[in-house]
Amino acid sequence: MSIAWRTLGALRQVRTDACGIPLKPTWSLRELLSSYPSPSLSPVTFHRLHELSALIPPTEGTPEYDATKKQLDELVRLVEAVKLVGVDRPTDSAIPDGRVWAEDTGIPLAKEPLDEGIQGTKLLDYANRTLEGMYVVETDRER
Fold it and tell me: Which of 2, 34, 94, 134 measures 20 to 30 Å from 48, CA to CA?
């Protein structure tokens, strides 16, 4: 495997393999999120989240409380960072086509005719048990 140096972004050199794939990650989520504001949950919100989740919150001031609160704060930071991302919305109300296809190709949307074989109540003829035109399913449960 040959290793090459390639230039990415702002003239930062990154070691890559022969196919141009970086040998180490070029960025991290933590690095990205460090540039966003750090919101913090209030103790009331922290307790309310536990209550809504049917969980018993750890006692305030314990290492477990601090670790859990830090994790939740990071999740809130991630959500807030996602909210800040600008998304161009189409001017019409159509749902954009997110499929990855070559131009002028795609999934055939023409419906093929259904098999005109056995349909409807005629299928009941193949059931082991029926009662008044309905399938009967055995269960172990008593009423």
Answer: 34
